[in-house]
Amino acid sequence: MPLLRYLIISVSIWCLTQACKPDLKQSALSDQSKNEQAPEAKKSIAYQWAEIALKATARDTERFRPRPSVTSRYLALLFVAMFDAWSRYDEKALPVYLQGIERRPVAEQNGRNKEIAVSYAAYRTLSEYYFSDSLMFSEFMVSIGLNPSNASLDPSTPEGIGNLAAKAVIDARTHDGSNQYAEKEGSEGLAYFDYTKYAPVNTDDTLADVNRWQPKYFIPAHGKRFAPGCLTPQWGNVRPVALRSSDQFRSPPPPMVGSKQLEQEVKEVVNLQANLTNEQKALVEFMRDGPASVQQAGHWLKFAMNVSVRDSQTLDEDVKMFMLTEVTAMDAFIACWDTKMFYDFARPYALVHHYFKDKQISGWAGPEKGWTQFPGQEWRPYSPDDFLCPPFPGYVSGHSTVSGGCAEVLRLFTGDDYFGEEIKWVPGYLTEPKNVGDTVILKFPTFTETANMAGQSRVLGGYHIQADNVEGLVLGRKVGNEVWKWYLEKVKSEE
Length: 495
Description:
Blueprint: H1 3-17, H2 45-64, H3 68-87, H4 111-129, H5 134-143, H6 158-172, H7 260-274, H8 278-288, H9 295-310, H10 315-343, H11 348-355, E1 360-364, E2 371-375, H12 398-414, E3 418-425, E4 440-446, H13 447-460, H14 466-492
Antiparallel strand pairs: 1-2, 3-4
Helix pairs in contact: 1-5, 2-4, 2-9, 2-10, 3-4, 3-6, 3-9, 3-10, 4-5, 4-6, 7-11, 8-13, 9-10, 9-12, 10-12, 10-14, 12-13, 12-14, 13-14
């Protein structure tokens, strides 16, 4: 979004709200410049910006349907910008993209300046990537006593450093392979247009090669059925933040048709889905996320936010942990898509139809139809009609890859695998709301087990075979450990 456009919006909001400008002492920003001993707020300003970012992500999903790869990039770059701004007020941290801006003197390294710098970095970055919600971001800036129209690039002020950090990130990632700005030849003005010219071997109606991905029909509540094309097939070409390259840890080949392993894993998917318990339905739905989804990067941001509250973290800790988690998610998606598009492997939807054609099997027949018997070619995942199956190849699982990576870095960051979260869920709520079960409690004892549960949920739901899950977890953990090494260089090095 052009700078002038959101500055006009910001100025208007600022002028309209000055009469009722909140008292800074009562705002979300602490005033540690006056009292360095003031206790940290329960939720840091980084935490509050994370809440805003998740709202924007949910709205983005409603506008554009789920696009987990894109979401992971937005969230990662947001927190990189916040980290870079914060780093200039930390005694050791090195910025990722904000180069040539000196660390501020010790006397200025206080909580108040950190909060201001972080907030301007967040505001500018969110306004760039989630530009449809610029008004929401401006209103939040005003609510915490900051002027959203302040576009200073003065590196001696926290406002200027925040704006400079956002600019550095946006500039550095403009031509990173994502094609966000439709800059690639032939993009026809369409953001994230596929410039690789990927074309599936199979069509939505014909299966030429059972080993390869096949598009599937979605049926909206009101409208004609359609088969979405492959989502961001170019994502393996996106430049990672911390990895050396997208193929640094490329997964080994998947099991192919004719192998005993694939036959057994396809049978496993059918058997699991035919016998889903209420707890398993709840797990499938919770990890799949709802219509206003924040996808896997957002899911793990929520988990990190749970850790922040659990451990009463400071602003410093939140800035570092959120950046670490979301860079891991972004790089995990890039690595995952490299593997996905390299092998272009089938999903259970097509594999079950192949292995069980004209054979009677038990399974879920669709919303409100329950479990029954039908020919194998009528089998479907445990999903609503308007989002039957993710529109991209199966191997490896994105949920598994991102979850494996994020769980690993949260374990390393906290120094303990313990998580200890639980949620209540009504099974069926997101899949067949007229046929829900009794409320269940899902427990996530450790980060590692949470990642395993996220990955297994995709097998239970019929979206992936076990190889997709297992190798995805392996890939994700490799990514997580690599990002962790990169992170340590950023927070423990001296200039």
